[in-house]
Structure formats: C-alpha cells, structure tokens
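Researcher: Structure prediction, please.
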Amino acid sequence: MVEEHGRSGRPRSERARRAVLNAADDLLVEIGYAALTMKGIAERAGVGRQTVYRWWSSKAEILYEASAIDAQQELAVPLTDDPSEDLAAYLDAFVEFLVNSHAGAAYRALIGEAQHDKVVAALLSSRDILGESAARVVGPALDASDSALSVEQATAFLIGPPFFHILSGRSAESVDTRQLAREFLRVLGVR
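Model: Predicted structure follows.
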C-alpha cells in the first residue's frame, strides 16, 4: 500500500484516499452538491470523519482532487500527425468528460459553487486542469501557426464554445467537434 503524508504529517493510506475520492464522486451524482457532506463522504468511504478532515478541509477540496485526477486520465488522447483529428478527439473526450463523467459532474458543480463561494473560486483558479489537458493538443497546432495567441488564450478559444454550450444546459449532441477543430485551425492559420 502506498502512503502519503496528509496535512498533519501522518501517513495516509492510498486505499482510504481513493475510497474517499470515489465516494465523493458517487454521492455527488446521487444526491447533488448541496446535500453532499463530509460526514456522508466518510460513511460512504468507510473511513472516520477525522481521517477525511485530516486530508481535506472541505467537500470542494475532495471533489476538486477527484476531478483533477480523473481529468488527467479521461482527457489524455493519443496524438497523431493530424492536428485536426487530435483536436477533434480531444474535444470528443472533453464533451464526454463534462456530460457523462462523475469527475466532470464534480467539476461542473464546483464551477457553479464558485460563483458565490470565494474559497471554491480560489480553489478552481489555483490550477487550470482543463486548460492543462487542452494544451497538450493545442501546443502542436499553435507551433504550426503564426498566431500570436498564448497557449492559455488558444486553449480558451478551443474549449470555450463547448464548455459554454454544455454549462448553459444545451444538448451535447449539437456540439460538432470536427467543425470546432477545423475552425480553430483556420483561425490559427494552420493548413
């Protein structure tokens, strides 16, 4: 068993950590963010509340860690020599993450909570997990262009439209990832 040190310096069990992260994801989908509690997460994970509070100070921190870990896996698409295909594959994974993944549901809940909770907003702004994942496919396209956009600006340009579309309650079926990829490359000036 792998052990890490939590905030108090005591070793933590990787198995217990994963159980807490999975419990938080599952409960969020079952009961929603407002009803989610640290006590409920601990009970579902089969660990004591002290264990949960030793490692995380809030349900938002647990959900953020869970979504960050899962996003790294779910949004990692294999790269090819075709930037258009790579971008479309990434956008397919991105839409799938936002719409069907428990981690995506957690991230969406955190976005909503961040609108009125400064602590959650600060947590989300501490690391751009979606931008980091998109940069892997945006970087090569940006390198092949003469665009003056930064990687951060380009990733926002790529993921912004489907992100807004889905977060505003529209159907994912109407997101044309191939068209978005082509348009992104056209704007960058990549042929």
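Model: The mean pLDDT is 91.
Researcher: Thanks, that helps.
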